[in-house]
Specification:
197 residues; mainly alpha; 2 domains; 0% strand
Length: 197
């Protein structure tokens, strides 16, 4: 992975952020993880931190702009003619209520609520919110979210040895907990199967 980021780091970050912030691909693509890795490699000197933030921001704005366009020009037709209505319908309804309740600030808040941001962008497009206004709020929201996420990754990169030690320790603890839970479960089942006196 280090070699890929050395040669293609900025395009990976741009595409990861763009594709993660589209409603259909955001569920399967680990764009946030790609951004986090970019920040770790920036801390190690392979990438530039300001450029990681810039490309992450640009990818996010392009991805949510795609969702806005989908909402503006094709959401209803796409959903009417496909089986996606059952899967995406409830999310779009939730996003519409969220947008109505919080107004334009919903575009900023939605970034901190997982994939809801894609559905809020689609709803903003479908509701007729002018793109210029959407774009202003989205630029600010994407900058705040990316700066926080990438700076966290940068801090993780500074303490990567410590994180690896904790992760290794957490792995051992998880194995012990799983084995203990399995032992308790087996004991419980054995007691239930014993005939009552």
């Amino acid at each position: 992975m280090r070699v890929a980021y050395h040669d293609w780091g900025y395009p990976i970050i741009l595409l990861g952020a763009l594709l993660e912030n589209t409603a259909l691909l955001g569920f399967v693509l680990p764009g946030g993880s790609l951004l986090l890795l970019g920040a770790v490699y920036a801390q190690q000197g392979i990438l530039s931190l300001p450029l990681v933030i810039l490309f992450g921001w640009l990818g996010m704005v392009l991805g949510t702009s795609f969702d806005y366009a989908l909402g503006r020009w094709g959401q209803h037709a796409l959903l009417r003619r496909s089986r996606l209505r059952d899967r995406l319908g409830p999310k779009l309804d939730e996003a519409e209520r969220f947008l109505e309740r919080h107004g334009a600030g919903a575009l900023i808040l939605a970034h901190f609520l997982g994939h809801l941001r894609s559905f809020v962008a689609m709803t903003a497009g479908a509701s007729g919110l002018p793109y210029r206004r959407f774009f202003q709020y989205e630029c600010l929201a994407a900058l705040i979210w990316n700066a926080i996420w990438i700076l966290l990754g940068y801090l993780v990169g500074e303490n990567i040895g410590l994180v690896q030690r904790y992760m290794a320790g957490a792995g051992v603890v998880m194995v012990v907990v799983v084995l203990a839970a399995y032992g308790v479960y087996r004991l419980y089942r054995r007691r239930r199967q014993m005939p009552a006196d």
